[in-house]
Each structure stands twice: as C-alpha cells, then as structure tokens.
From TrEMBL:
InterPro entries documented for this protein: DEAD/DEAH_box_helicase_dom (IPR011545), Ded1/Dbp1_DEADc (IPR044763), Helicase_ATP-bd (IPR014001), Helicase_C-like (IPR001650), P-loop_NTPase (IPR027417), RNA_helicase_DEAD_Q_motif (IPR014014)
Organism: Hibiscus trionum (Flower of an hour)
Species classification: Eukaryota, Viridiplantae, Streptophyta, Embryophyta, Tracheophyta
Protein name stated in the entry: RNA helicase
Name of the top EC class for this enzyme: hydrolase
Pfam family, any one: DEAD
PANTHER family: ATP-DEPENDENT RNA HELICASE DBP3
GO MF, one annotated term: hydrolase activity
Region (Disordered): 1-113
Length: 616
C-alpha cells in the first residue's frame, strides 16, 4: 500500500540517523529546519507517521534518491551551495548559490514568496457577496460514471486519493489550501501516468481539473529529481519546465494556479506573455525560473533575444494542445519545440491536454510525443452534462432584443435582483464593442474582451467581470478557452462559431468543477453547417434537441469542421487505434486493438489488456 510522503519521511528520518551511526558523519537532514520554516509552515505540518513507503511503482527514478540525497532523506528542495552540508538538488551543481536558475535561491525565495492564497480571486468572490464558499468542493458524483479510455503500453494504474500520489508534504499542504479533497477523474489517471515519466495526450471535459493534472507532476518532478549541472551563461535563463498556452489570460491563470501548487516548495514559476512590458518579465526571469508559463509569441521573442534557452527543459506541457497545433499556432510551436535548443522528444517529457482533440491534430501532435499514452476522460470533444444547453432560432435582426429579454429575465430571477455573471460570445471585435455599448446604454453594465483591446484593458475587463461590477462580459474567442471564472452562470452564443469544438470550449466557461451552468445559442440561417454537429453534440450530452434543429441537421452538409466529425458518432478516440485498423474514420471513430481499454472513472482495480472499450 502506498502511503503519503509525510509517512515515509517520518520513518526514513529515524532510519537515516541509525545508518549514520556506522558511517561517515553526515548532517541529519531530517532534523534541519530552514530558518524561514521554523515557525508556521512546519508547525502547521501534520505529524508524520506510518511505515516507510516504496514509491517506485510509478515514479521515474526509484527510491528516495529523487528527493535529493538517497533513500530516506528529507527532500532538500532547491538547496545546494558551498558548505551547507546538504545534498545538492540544485541544477547548478553546488555553486555559490548566487546565480539565476539556482535552486539555492529557492530557499531564499520562499522567505520572500508572496502567499498566493491570500490574493486568491475566490476569496475576493466571497467579499463580493457571491453566495458559495471559497472554492467549494467539486461535485464528484457528477463524474462517477464518466467513461475513461486509455491506450498505450504499460499504463500505470489510477489512484483514488491525493495521499496515494505522494507529491510531498509541501504540495499536499498546498492541495489542502486549494480545498481539493480528492482528485478529479482526469487527475486520478493523468498524474500517475505523468509521474511515471510517460508522455501523455490527455483529453478531458472543460472544467474537470486538467491544469492541476499537468502542474502537479511537473512541480513534483522538479522537486524530486536531481538535475545535474544546469547550463548557465550571460543573461540567459534555463527553465526546467515549460507550459505553453494560447492566450495571455490563460497563461496568467495557469501561472496563478501553479504558484499556489508550488507555494513554499522552492520551485519558481514565472509567466511571460505578449502585450505586457517585456522588461518587467525579463527582470522576473532573472530572479530565477524553474517553470516558465508562456504564450508562444512572447516565448519566441525571448528565445530570439537569447534571454531564455530551452536546453534544460525536462517537462513540456501544452494546454489547449489542439488549439496550439491548429493552423494559427502550429508554426510557432514547431519552431519552439523542434527548431530551437529544446531536448528531443523522449529526452524531455511531453504532455498535451485539451477538452477536444480532433484526429488530424492528434496526428500532428504525435510528432512531439514519444511512446505516449492516450487518455480520454469523458468522450473526446463532448461537453459536460452539467451544462444545460438551449438553442433558439433567432434571426440576426432580433438578436439584441432577444438577448435583452434573456438578461432581463435573469436579473428578475436573480438573488436580490442581481445579474448573474453572463458571458456573451460574438464573432468580431467590432461586434463586441458595439454590443457592449448597446447593453450599457440599455442599463446592463457590461465590459468587453477581445484582441483589439490593450492588455491592461483586457485584464481590467476580466477583473471587473469576475468581481461582478460588470456582470456581463462580451467576448470574442479570446475568452473561449481555459478561463476558469467562478460563478459564470450563463454563456450566450450570440454568434455561433463555425467549429463545433469552439462551441464546446465556449460553453465550458460555465458548468465547471462539478457545478451546473446554462448555455444558450442563437442559431440562424448562417449557421446551417453547424446544425448536424450541434444536434449530435446535444444529443450526446443528453440535451433536448429542438425539432427544427433536427430538421436542419438532416438537410445540412456536415460542417463544424468536417475533418473532425464526419463519421457521425462519438466513440473511441486514439487516432493510432483507428490507423492500426486501417479505418478511415473522419470522426472520433471507435476500435479496439487490445492495448486500449475503457473503464468507468471509479474503476480502481488492476488493468488487463484487451478489456473492451466502454464505448464499444
Ligand atoms: N481535485 C479538485 N477538487 C476540487 N476542485 C478542483 C480540483 N481540481 C481542480 N479543481 C478546480 O476545478 C476548476 C476547473 O479546473 P481547470 O481550470 O483546471 O479545468 P480544465 O479542465 O483545465 O478546464 P478547461 O478545459 O476549460 O481548460 C478550477 O477552479 C480548479 O481550481
């Protein structure tokens, strides 16, 4: 049985002191408490107890060495340097401790580290009078029956609790601070896979906790592994982990989350994104970086200025990976991953995450992966059942008055006549400004976010929306992916997107972390090509499909990205399986080659190859 890291430390501490009796005297690491941890952090820690653990079953390097300094030692995160007597976990190989990228800075950093939980948006939410408690526990019942499909070789088994995952006491404390009681289904499967050092392509529904699923293993890996000499030179920095995301706001959000998960671990997370002053970001990078969260454009800029080198990268994660490999971003991603100094696939560990993963994109993505595991929690490209979806036929000329009716009704039904947070998606930046203006003059406080606004304006708009000051946010697709805004009750697709996957991401801004949400779409003649995929998606998510939509769907040519969904059914989804069968499925086709299997999310037992897919 696996137990937590805290347990193993307690036991290994006594083992260490015993073994030291017979050997060259060494400092008893487990008794050392760094000065800044002598008060609260350590005092808060639960008393370690229980038997020593064997963590090697899915942990990359076996045994305690990953924690820096041999089996049974207390993790010496980020410590190194001359004369301190501790094993060097730092990547600078025992240098003086003053340089950048220097894990010794980790200890100092922790003294200065701002507590990310103090400025948590969710605390502000409570101040703003939103009724729910801080980060309410996820509704796990909503995920109990979710189908899970995994393909690949030697898949590590899933876990049921965070304690089984053994992320280290510091991270465990942070998980508790986040109020995560147990892992979500994607976390249960993905974290053990990633901790085993495996490459991963993971698909799980919007709002199901993918961020933690890739952040935890990266942070934990950096804490555990003994990276040798990390390159250094001039003003260039050499991060160990790189997380790429398609938008500035999403990068900031991932950065905020990662800072919480890595709080007091000595692992330093820095964000770099366009539209913000680069000098400030350079200064932050110079203070040291272990994990860099970035948008591709700004990262290319930093690489070209030789201010960042990727040659030490051990972990690469692409969030919204299908978007990142779509036409818009693919050249930049290829440049970053293939044409700069990043270690090759197989040398680095690569993880790709999204809620949608079209087959064509999977094929492209496989260029970046080495003998990877494919994981699908829920059906690939499907929306969560937690979102009630409504489609209404609204001609262009009636859209504004129809929206106003909806908002008015919502306000009347809201608590104390309060407007629930509503995200309205439109097609164009101009359209966004014009609708926002119209809403404001009609008594609906609104703001807008789109690519023509300055970064400062975008950030202000988001804050104003989150706080409820302007409870309506009119947005283009820039807000469609990844943004985790608590309390968004309603998503309105004022203009529907052309691609059904974009629709899935847009409506996924509500109904997150087990909570329910509402999504309304205005459909008109110009959306005919979306009729079929939309009707299928709704049906598949147990939504009521209006007869007129079924009618349009039966007449319409297949659209909404025909490369993705023309096969006409949801099903198994690893493109390798389809190809090994020689099937020409343009959709998320089924198939089972004996290495893939599907299981319900609460499945906790052993794995057997050849178990039939949950979809077949
Ligand atoms: N184990 C957990 N317990 C409780 N809440 C969790 C847990 N894991 C994540 N969450 C919360 O769930 C919410 C959604 O998580 P996250 O933003 O990572 O979703 P996602 O799957 O990346 O969504 P998207 O596909 O839209 O990017 C966040 O508020 C996060 O804090």
């Amino acid at each position: 049985m696996r137990t937590s890291w805290a347990d193993s430390v307690a036991n290994s501490a006594s083992e260490t002191s015993v073994s030291n009796n017979n050997s060259v005297p060494r400092p008893i690491r487990s008794t050392y408490v760094p000065p800044h941890l002598r008060s609260s952090a350590v005092a808060d820690a639960p008393t370690p107890s229980g038997p020593p653990t064997e963590r090697a079953s899915f942990g990359g390097n076996a045994g305690g060495s990953r924690w820096g300094g041999g089996s049974g030692s207390k993790p010496e995160y980020g410590r190194q340097g001359k004369g301190n007597g501790y094993a060097a976990v730092g990547r600078d190989g025992g240098g003086s401790g003053s340089g950048r990228n220097n894990r010794s800075a980790g200890w100092d950093r922790r003294e200065r580290e701002v507590n990310p939980f103090v400025n948590d948006d969710r605390v502000d939410d409570v101040k703003q009078g939103f009724s729910e408690q801080v980060n309410p526990a996820i509704n796990f019942d909503a995920y109990e029956d979710i189908p899970v499909e995994i393909s690949g070789e030697n898949v590590p088994p899933p876990v049921n609790t965070f304690a089984e995952i053994d992320l280290g006491e510091m991270m465990n404390q942070n998980i508790r601070r986040c109020k995560y009681l147990k892992p979500t289904p994607v976390q249960r499967y993905a974290i053990p896979i990633a901790l085993a050092g495996r490459d991963l392509m993971a698909c799980a529904q919007t709002g199901s906790g993918k961020t933690a699923a890739f952040c935890f293993p990266i942070i934990s890996g950096i804490m555990r592994e003994q990276y040798g000499q990390r390159a250094r030179g001039g003003r260039t920095v050499y991060p160990l982990g790189l997380i790429l995301s398609p938008t500035r706001e999403l990068s900031c959000q991932i950065h905020d989350e990662a800072k919480k998960f890595s709080y007091q671990t000595g692992v330093k997370v820095v964000v770099a994104y366009g539209g913000a002053p680069i000098n400030q970001q350079l200064r932050e990078l110079e203070r040291g970086v272990d994990i860099l969260v970035a948008t591709p454009g700004r990262l290319v800029d930093l690489l070209e200025r030789a201010r960042v080198s990727l040659q030490s990268i051990r972990y690469l994660a692409l969030d919204e990976a299908d978007r990142m490999l779509d036409m818009g971003f693919e050249p930049q991603i290829r440049k970053i991953v293939e044409q700069m100094d990043m270690p090759n696939r197989g040398v680095r560990q690569t993880m790709l995450f999204s809620a949608t993963f079209p087959r064509e994109i999977q094929r492209l993505a496989s260029d970046f992966l080495s003998t990877y595991i494919f994981l699908a929690v829920g059906r690939v490209g499907s929306s969560t059942d937690l979102i009630v979806q409504r489609v209404e036929f609204v001609p262009e000329s009636d859209k504004r008055s129809h929206l106003m009716d909806l908002l008015q009704a919502q306000r009347e039904n809201g608590e104390h006549g309060k407007q629930a947070l509503t995200l309205v998606f439109v097609e164009t930046k101009k359209g966004a400004d014009s609708l926002e203006h119209w809403l404001c003059i009609n008594g609906f406080p609104s703001t807008t976010i789109h690519g023509d606004r300055s970064q400062q304006e975008r950030e202000l708009a988001l804050r104003s929306f989150k706080s409820g000051k302007t409870p309506i946010l009119v947005a283009t697709d820039v807000a469609a992916r990844g943004l985790d805004i608590p309390h968004v009750a309603h998503v309105v697709n004022f203009d529907l997107p052309n691609d059904i996957d974009d629709y899935v991401h847009r409506i996924g801004r509500t109904g997150r972390a087990g909570k329910t949400g509402l999504a309304t779409a205005f459909f008109d003649e110009s959306n005919l090509s979306l009729a079929r995929p939309l009707a299928e998606l709704m049906q598949e998510s147990n939504q009521e499909v209006p007869p007129w939509l079924t009618h349009y769907a039966s007449r319409a040519p297949y659209g909404g990205n025909k490369n993705r969904r023309s096969g006409g059914r949801f099903g198994g989804c690893d493109f390798r399986r389809e190809e090994s069968f020689g099937k020409n499925l343009d959709y998320y086709g089924g198939g089972n080659n004996g290495t893939a299997f599907g299981v319900p999310a609460d499945y906790g037992g052993g794995y057997a190859p050849g178990v039939t897919s949950a979809w077949d």
